[in-house]
Design a protein that fits this description.
heterodimer, A: MetI-like fold, 15 helices, 0% strand, B: mainly alpha, MetI-like fold, 73% helix, flat
């Protein structure tokens, strides 16, 4: 931002002249049309030469070619069209580069999960067996003598569904009612400001702290060291409620006021207006928001590790004893293989569970989008 | 929206007719709002209650001979890892946000936005496994090179042979906080007043000059806020660090094993902990809670300041 300077002193005048020199743009000439294409071709050729010709690592070859491309772009356009165009082109190249850099880890991650976990996930045994009674000796036999692979994630799948389900049952009423309070009742009152502020604060709670909270709460209420599924559900709720409130509030806010006013004018009580007019209008948005909130917590590991513990057998009782969930299952299989010397079967189970989780999360995200798109209220 | 038309006629009665259904519903909604306040207060209170034994205990019984000496290196590790992640992620995230908002075709931009959201949805344990198995081994040659050529800088003093270092963990954290910085920045860039952009272009600015003079100054508070939110996320991120890092005592060397972060320390030691050790870990969690709280409040404050400013447009 240019600042104003006094013109009646010599110093101020100097500043001002400096400014004017800066503002007058350097001349720009039209660049030859093919220059960009030629430089792109050079870059591709460099990659091929470095990768195939000099047998360099592909990543290194691409990085080198990209840097060369940036340098050539700058120099080329500087000569052909002037410094300003050259900078423009250079920044464009960098921005496209940023985009590619962001895609790389995602592609690598998806590829890894699918190739390492794919074979096991499609196997019904993996989906229907628990780890009850499976020991390192079984893994050793599988890896050494090719014996039948046993041990799956059935208990973890059931645990994930139960704990996430319970968390949803806690979070949705609390979150939705809070959103209704904020939008329909509180308006601009001080309490509304306070609640909104603390919902924001809650969004930032680290997931492991939510787990510690549930653990500490259970320790005070039921005695130290009590771990069960319900504690996990409470921990997940702490993470889920702010998301539900935020999404629902946004959805309720876009319901047109005319609808509320029309209903109230007909003498409908306010609560029935909310239940029969406002909520149905916003239903698709609310459903999609809840789905996104579920997707956010279903892959949580840390809070469940702390509050629920780890179980090898199926446990369907949320109020008694440790349970297992997919994320925790993957973590334990990966970091503490059943048999430290014969890790492969455990690692394979971990990646299968990871793939299952990723599939669930992607499916939830997609369905949230589809719900929002197809069940949206018609505009007119 | 209350019906107060009878106010003038009967100044004594200001209340509208309230049906039992209304009272119950209003009460339930209000109670939920208060529940949220109660939960947040509960988080603070129960953590303090469970961590309290540490403060009164004999320092000799604690892990490092005192809670401060135990938690300070962990705070240092947490902050170093998060700051590296933030520094790496921010330029890339701003680049993607600009790409989506000003360079890509609209349809391409939306699908890129979806892909970035997808990146945000991948569970952290999967990131951790990926970092351990894919990224860490690939970082080893780079670490060797850094040790050989830049080893005189303490940070690159000695290289790990597994790649399971704080630097690798920080890079994975960077990938994980990329989406949040991107989405906040994209939102503010898209809100840049059209007239500012067109005025810049009409004065003969190139596209980059337009972005530098119109889009970036307008969006800067939003970018800073998004970055702080990303920092908050990185500070509290547990599983990726717990899996990737092979932890140890604090060291300035970032490309060798060693160091730890508060969340990773808790996740790795909590399942086997009991007694005073448990309180110690919960106390560390409380410290983490306070740090993230401060960072998040700062971020909200920066973003809110921008909201006031943009209201003038």
């Amino acid at each position: 931002m240019p600042t104003l300077h006094r013109l009646d002193t010599q110093e101020g005048l100097d500043h001002r002249i400096d400014h004017v020199r800066g503002v007058v743009p350097a001349p720009v000439r039209p660049a030859p049309r093919r220059l960009g294409a030629v430089l792109g071709a050079v870059a591709v050729a460099t990659v091929l030469l470095l990768w195939l010709g000099l047998d360099l690592h592909l990543g290194l070859a691409v990085t080198g070619a990209f840097l060369l491309y940036l340098a050539l772009t700058y120099v080329g356009f500087r000569v052909a069209a002037g410094a300003r165009v050259a900078t423009d082109r250079l920044m464009r190249g960098l921005l496209y580069g940023a985009f590619v850099v962001a895609l790389l880890p995602l592609c690598s991650l998806l590829w890894t999960v699918v190739t390492l976990g794919g074979a096991r996930v499609v196997n019904p045994d993996f989906l229907l067996q628990t780890m009850n009674g499976v020991t390192g000796l079984h893994d050793q036999a599988t890896q050494q003598q090719g014996q039948l692979f046993i041990g799956g994630a059935y208990h973890a799948i059931v645990g994930t569904l139960l704990i996430t389900g319970a968390a949803t049952l806690i979070s949705v009423p609390v979150g939705l009612l809070t959103a209704i309070y904020l939008v329909e009742y509180a308006g601009r009152s001080r309490l509304a400001h306070v609640i909104r502020f603390f919902v924001d604060v809650m969004t930032g709670i680290p997931s492991i702290v939510a787990g510690l909270f549930a653990f500490a709460l259970w320790a005070v209420v039921f005695g130290i060291g009590t771990k069960d599924g319900m504690a996990g559900a409470v921990a997940l709720s702490v993470l889920m409620i702010p998301t539900v409130v935020r999404n629902s509030e946004e959805m309720l806010r876009i319901v047109p006021n005319e609808l509320r006013e029309a209903s109230l004018a007909l003498g409908v009580p306010k609560w029935r207006t909310i239940v029969r007019v406002v909520l149905p209008t916003a239903a698709s948005g609310l459903a999609s928001g809840v789905t996104l909130a579920i997707a956010r917590v279903i892959g949580e590991t840390a809070p469940l590790l702390v509050a629920v513990g780890y179980a090898r057998a199926l446990n369907t009782n949320l109020l008694e004893g440790p349970m297992n969930t997919l994320a925790v299952y993957a973590y334990y299989m990966f970091t503490k293989p059943l048999s430290p010397a014969y890790r492969d079967p455990s690692i394979e189970r971990a990646w299968a569970a990871a793939l299952l989780l990723v599939l669930v999360v992607v499916a939830l995200n997609l369905s949230a989008r589809l719900i929002a798109r197809f069940f949206a209220p018609t505009k007119r | 929206m209350s019906m107060t038309s009878d106010r003038g006629a009967r100044p004594g009665r200001r209340r509208t007719v309230r049906r039992p259904g209304d009272i119950t519903f209003h009460g339930a909604a209000l109670a939920s709002g208060l529940t949220i306040l109660a939960i947040l207060a509960g988080v603070a209170i129960f953590l303090v209650v469970e961590a309290a034994p540490v403060l009164t205990a004999d320092p000799e019984e604690l892990t490092a001979g005192g809670f401060g000496r135990y938690v300070l290196p962990l705070i240092a590790g947490t902050v170093i890892a998060s700051v590296i992640a933030m520094v790496v992620a921010t330029p890339v995230a701003v680049g993607i946000a600009l790409f989506i908002s000003h360079y890509a075709h609209r349809r391409v931009g939306t699908s890129v936005g979806f892909v970035v959201d997808l990146l945000a949805a991948v569970p952290s344990v999967v990131f951790g496994m990926w970092g351990w198995q894919v990224l860490a081994p690939r970082m080893v040659p780079l670490y060797r090179w850094l040790e050989a050529n830049l080893g005189f800088i303490p940070v690159f003093g000695s290289a790990s042979s597994t790649g399971r270092t704080l630097m690798t963990a920080s890079l994975v954290l960077a990938v994980m906080i990329l989406p949040i910085i991107t989405s906040v920045s994209r939102e503010v860039f898209l809100q840049t007043p059209r007239l500012h952009e067109e005025a810049a272009l009409a004065l003969g600015a190139t596209k980059w000059e337009m972005i530098r003079t119109a889009v970036l100054p307008f969006g800067m508070p939003g970018v800073i806020g998004g970055t702080m939110l990303g920092l908050g996320r990185a500070l509290g991120e547990t599983m990726a660090v717990a899996i990737i890092l092979s932890p140890g005592v604090f060291t300035w060397v970032l490309i060798d094993s060693g160091n730890s972060t508060i969340p990773a320390e808790i996740a790795l030691n909590f399942p086997e902990a009991s007694g005073l050790r448990l309180s110690e870990l919960i106390g560390a969690g409380l410290v983490l809670f306070l740090i993230t709280l401060a960072v998040n409040l700062l971020a909200r404050w920066v973003v809110a300041r921008r909201a006031d400013f943009s209201g003038a447009n």
